[in-house]
């Protein structure tokens, strides 16, 4: 194809328009290369094309493991360009991508605020597809913050939009995301049923893998360790093949929790140390904090000093980013560490603080564990 201005624009359009399909097919790493290949062409393109490229570049680079500063810069440039050119729709699109990157970076409040702006724009225009995309960033940000009621409301709206459009992808995604919120809150039965609703729709490979991982985590938390671990391992393998770094790290963290509950501490520890390395390298602050917490629990029986160090770091990170449920879980784990050292008074203080937060948030399984630990003091 001759190197003419019209052909250069056609090439930009072709790559940008393939983004949704490549995402659905799980070919994110391949599409990052395609986007990078037209970087120079977009620098002299008109604002709508440049903003679209910046937004998709930020979105795909965040998925495939670029350090979070890189996609944040892409998305912020897209927002600034859209503002300058008066492109309200492109601004909302860019902020939808930016909300995802903020979530990955552990900027939870910014993720919620940015995603809400995008959601309001899309819903006001009855653009239900992109409203769902905004809701898909908002629900995990709410979950990471421990805002279960808000997270479930985001999922309800996404499911409602998907059903109104009668779209397979939107419906299946809405179901497994709803299941994820229920399971992380501690309502395993509701969460598992939601995942089964997603399976019944025969979803595309991406949503099938995501639903399988969430279902596996629900089984782990419900005590069905063998089956849950197997499902999580399958999901992690699929995510590894698709080069989805953040999501693979999240599911690997859940898998490590399964191994820890199964008594395979060394296997769990290896995975957790891998997640810590990845999280530090990529800037995944929330995952880093949670990994410190689970590693602290893993080390408590045999290395109390190491456990104390990891739990202290988890408390620092999780409080800083506003991850309240995980902060409470870390307080509870610290109480367990104090109890193992026969320091009942300090153990009680940590456990009671954890219980108060869990009850405020409406977490279901956390209070049960903490009350059991308090009863043993």
CATH C-level name of the domain at 271-368 and 373-377: Mainly Alpha
Number of helices: 21
Number of strands: 0
As a percent range, the share of helical residues equals over 70%
The biggest beta sheet reads:
none
Name given to the CATH architecture of the domain at 271-368 and 373-377:
Alpha Horseshoe
Round the Cα radius of gyration to an integer and report it.
21 Å
N to C succession of SSEs: HHHHHHHHHHHHHHHHHHHHH
Distance between the termini: 76 Å
Shape: elongated
- Class of secondary structure makeup: mainly alpha
Write up what this structure looks like.
The chain is mostly helical. Among the domains are: 97 residues, Tetratricopeptide repeat domain (Serine Threonine Protein Phosphatase 5, Tetratricopeptide repeat, Alpha Horseshoe), CATH 1.25.40.10; 103 residues, Alpha Horseshoe (Serine Threonine Protein Phosphatase 5, Tetratricopeptide repeat), CATH 1.25.40. Helices cover 85% and strands 0% of the residues. It has 21 helices and no strands.
């Amino acid at each position: 194809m001759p190197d003419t201005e019209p052909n250069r624009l056609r090439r930009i359009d072709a790559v940008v328009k393939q983004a949704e399909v490549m995402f659905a097919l799980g070919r994110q790493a391949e599409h990052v290369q395609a986007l990078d290949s037209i970087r120079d062409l977009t620098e002299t393109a008109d604002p709508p094309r440049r903003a679209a490229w910046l937004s998709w570049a930020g979105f795909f680079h965040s998925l495939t493991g670029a350090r979070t500063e890189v996609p944040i810069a892409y998305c912020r440039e897209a927002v600034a360009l859209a503002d300058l050119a008066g492109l309200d729709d492109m601004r909302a699109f860019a902020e939808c991508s930016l909300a995802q990157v903020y979530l990955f970076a552990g900027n939870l409040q910014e993720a919620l605020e940015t995603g809400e702006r995008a959601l309001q724009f899309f819903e006001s225009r009855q653009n239900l597809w992109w409203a769902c995309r905004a809701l898909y960033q908002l629900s995990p940000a709410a979950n990471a913050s421990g805002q279960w009621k808000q997270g479930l409301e985001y999922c309800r709206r996404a499911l409602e939009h998907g059903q109104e459009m009668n779209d397979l992808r939107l419906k299946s995604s809405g179901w497994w995301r709803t299941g994820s919120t229920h399971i992380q809150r501690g309502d395993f039965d509701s969460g598992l049923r939601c995942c089964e609703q997603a399976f019944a729709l025969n979803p595309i490979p991406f949503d099938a893998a995501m639903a399988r991982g969430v279902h596996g985590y629900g089984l782990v938390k419900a005590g069905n360790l063998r089956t849950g671990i197997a499902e999580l391992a399958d999901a992690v393998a699929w995510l590894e093949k698709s080069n989805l770094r953040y999501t693979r790290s999240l599911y690997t963290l859940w898998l490590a929790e399964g191994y820890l509950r199964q008594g395979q501490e060394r296997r769990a520890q290896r995975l957790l140390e891998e997640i810590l390395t990845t999280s530090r390298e990529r800037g995944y602050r929330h995952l880093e904090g949670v990994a410190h917490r689970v590693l602290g629990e893993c080390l408590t029986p045999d290395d109390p000093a190491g456990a104390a160090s990891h739990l202290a770091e988890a408390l620092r990170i999780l409080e800083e980013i506003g991850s309240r449920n995980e902060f409470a879980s870390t307080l509870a784990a610290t109480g367990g560490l104090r109890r193992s050292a026969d320091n009942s008074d300090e153990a009680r203080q940590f456990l009671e603080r954890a219980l108060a937060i869990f009850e405020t948030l409406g977490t279901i399984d956390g209070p049960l564990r903490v009350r059991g630990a308090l009863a043993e003091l």
